[in-house]
Specification:
By secondary structure, the chain is mainly alpha-helical. It has helices at about 30-40, 50-100, 105-135.
Length: about 140
């Protein structure tokens, strides 16, 4: 009686990559032409290993760009919050000074109104700046 089990070694099959887009589609074609103009080498002449290296590098660079933009966006939001807090504090200080003067100190009233207007306009300015800079 033979109690040895033989396992046959299966050969590893290469995965065939499929693309989810048709490169001959009219709406994809301009992007491919732009991509071909951006690279300074002949893609058709490269080996599959060289193409893989370039693809991996492109993915890494795209990821780094994404992370950089996310950090810039977070920094910008923090600056907006700081400016908003400053304007709010100054508005309250000037309004308190105006009220303590018995509503006589017109300079404090004008400053309070200016800080209040800046507080009201800041979200619109910040929103349009974010939309313009991070599109």
């Amino acid at each position: 009686m033979n109690n040895i089990i033989e396992f046959t070694k299966q050969q590893k099959q290469e995965k065939v990559l499929t693309f989810s887009f048709n490169p001959t589609e009219p709406n994809i074609r301009p992007y491919l032409v732009s991509a071909d103009q951006l690279v300074s080498y002949d893609i058709d002449a490269l080996s599959i290993d060289e193409l893989r290296e370039h693809a991996r590098y492109s993915i890494i660079m795209a990821y780094r760009t994404h992370i950089s933009r996310a950090q810039e966006n977070n920094t910008f939001k923090q600056v907006i919050r700081l400016v908003n807090a400053f304007l709010d504090r100054r508005y309250k200080e000037e309004l308190t000074k105006y009220q303590l003067s018995g509503n006589v100190d017109i300079t404090s009233q004008a400053k309070a109104l200016a800080f209040d207007e800046a507080l009201n306009v800041l979200p619109d300015i910040a929103g349009s700046t974010i939309a313009r800079e991070f599109k």
